[in-house]
Specification:
about 525 residues, mainly beta, Tachylectin-2, Chain A, Jelly Rolls, 2 domains, eight-stranded antiparallel β-sheet
């Protein structure tokens, strides 16, 4: 009977669901956030009963992730639009340059005439990118790019076959693209809305941006985010009867800072706004907000509020769809990584391997580095809330004097636990903390065995935003090391914390570190994750 009641409730229109469930308790129902991890700037489409979502991963590669869901709640990575976005120095961490806080920004995912399209933009190198494929889950992707970079654009296919991008910051622009999407059609750029922030008032800190344009029942709806000074992220919607306007605008949602996104409907005809929320060190996390319609306007939320519960299925968790453990076991020729892994900037593919030693990830040094933020071949995954931890086993036998290898919680303010290699195998287990703005070795312990076990844990409960580090000599008994890391979401990196495996040289190149496995846990206690 409970299952029948659940099916009945989930089939109700959104408005009736909240009316019925206000006096009804059900065992399972969806809840916000739908993903407690850094998945910002979402763009979602539905094809039949399947939803696809693109998101921002900035300087990580491969990039422009594609996720798939059958229920809007449980998502799994199925593809990336590109392996690397650009080969300029900033993307390769060469010549002292990096692209932290930049790389691929807000994307736009669309389906038109049997082809999937996803577009993004990047500064540097100041370009707009469009990727297309017939098979969104397997590819291949065709890549095109042109200048300039159109900020926070929305790709839009009109029914007459013409293609547009809507973009801008404060002043929202529209431009028509060439029919082959190779660039902007000359003379077509014009102002669409002079001041898109106006519905939120005159005291604006962040002008309207994050454009997403939709055509529903022959009307055009443009979503933007703006941020009044002293206030919070705010959703503004403009509506028009024709693509080029005129547009009238409304303040659509101002609650919990949940904003930036667009509209999606279910096969049953229920509507939601997909948005995200800044949530401290874990990053920008996705929310779904119920939508009803009134006089052809989408009404976001219930009584103007973002609900904790949703008329959708319960989440089954993020592993292995968005994050995953990895034993690094591959066939002898399979030098491939599961999709949740991303490299920090472009990888140096000559200096990492899953095949040179069966069952291990090998990271080999190829240059001298002095700072973790400039190290190539750091392999990363998202952290996730409300708490999470990762464990690895590190074989140090082929590290050279001065090499540093280990496990990190990575953002501008980072910490790591690992091994610093000394002369004649005199290695030290260390914890490095950058809480004071510079890397400080706050703990150091001599080790006398070739394999050590490392653990990093993140506590995001109630915005604690603390990182903790542990070591073990047998993989079972864990000991805390160093000092807690005060994790903070910083604009220079513009990304939630990542867990990462790394190895870099400070004196001599050519040494290598072998990682036996990477195992995730959803608790932070020192005696778990073995």
């Amino acid at each position: 009977m409970l299952c029948n009641m659940k099916r009945f409730l989930l089939s109700l229109p959104v408005s009736l669901f909240f009316l019925v469930t206000s006096a009804t308790v059900i065992a399972q129902q969806g809840s916000n956030p739908i993903i407690y991890a850094d998945v910002p700037d979402m763009s979602i489409i539905r094809q039949g009963n399947t939803y696809y979502m693109s998101s921002t991963t900035m300087h990580m590669n491969p990039g422009l992730p594609i996720m798939k869901s059958n229920d809007l709640v449980n998502w799994q990575l199925v593809n990336y639009a590109y392996d690397t976005l650009s080969t300029i120095d900033a993307f390769k961490l060469t010549n002292g340059k990096s692209t932290y806080g930049h790389g691929s920004w807000a994307s736009s995912l669309r389906y038109h005439n049997g082809t999937y399209y996803v577009s993004t933009f990047a500064n540097p190198p100041g370009k707009t990118y469009i990727y297309s494929t017939k098979d969104i889950e397997k590819g291949p992707w065709k890549a095109q790019s042109f200048s300039p970079a159109l900020h926070d654009h929305s790709l839009f296919f009109e029914e007459d076959g013409r293609v547009y991008m809507v973009y801008g910051n404060g002043r929202i622009m529209i431009t028509e693209l060439e029919s082959d999407l190779s660039g902007i059609k000359p003379g077509t750029s014009r102002v669409l809305i002079e001041n898109a922030s106006a519905p939120a008032g005159n005291n604006i800190g962040l002008p309207a941006e994050g454009s997403q344009l939709f055509k529903i029942n022959n009307k055009y709806y443009l979503f933007n985010i703006t941020w009044p000074k002293g206030g919070m992220r705010t959703v503004v919607i403009h509506r028009a009867d024709s693509l080029t306007g005129p547009y009238e605008g409304r303040l659509a949602l101002q609650d919990k800072g949940v904003a930036q996104g667009g509209l999606i409907n279910t096969p049953e005809g229920n509507w939601f706004a997909y948005l995200f929320r800044d949530f401290g060190a874990v990053g920008r996390i996705p929310y779904l907000v119920p939508v009803t319609w009134e006089n052809d306007w989408p009404i976001l939320g219930v009584n103007g509020k973002v609900t904790d519960s949703l008329p959708l299925p319960v989440s089954t968790g993020y592993q292995p769809g968005i994050v995953c453990s990895d034993e690094f076991d591959r066939s002898p020729r399979a030098n491939t990584l599961p999709l949740p892994w991303q490299w920090n900037h472009n990888p140096d593919n000559n200096n990492w391997s899953l095949t040179k030693r069966s069952g291990y990830l090998r990271l080999t040094t190829s240059r001298i580095d002095t700072s973790l933020v400039m190290v190539r071949n750091m392999l990363t995954q998202r952290t996730f809330g409300p708490e999470c931890a990762a464990v690895t086993a590190l074989d140090t036998r082929h590290m050279k004097e001065g090499d540093c290898a280990g496990l990190t919680l990575f953002q501008k303010i980072y910490g790591w636990v690992g091994v610093k290699a000394g002369a004649k195998g005199n290695h030290r287990l260390v914890m490095v903390n950058t809480a004071n703005g510079i890397p400080e070795e706050v703990a150091s312990i001599p080790i006398h065995q070739p394999v050590v076990y490392l653990k990093a844990a993140a506590d995001f409960r109630n915005r604690a935003d603390k990182g903790y580090f542990y070591y073990s000599l047998d993989g079972n008994t864990w000991t805390a090391i160093g000092t807690p890391l005060p994790m903070a979401y910083t604009i220079p990196h513009f990304m939630g914390y990542r867990l990462g495996l790394f190895n870099y040289a400070t004196q001599t190149t050519g040494g290598y570190a072998d990682f036996d496995y990477y195992r995730l846990d959803n608790t932070i206690s020192g005696n778990t994750g073995n």
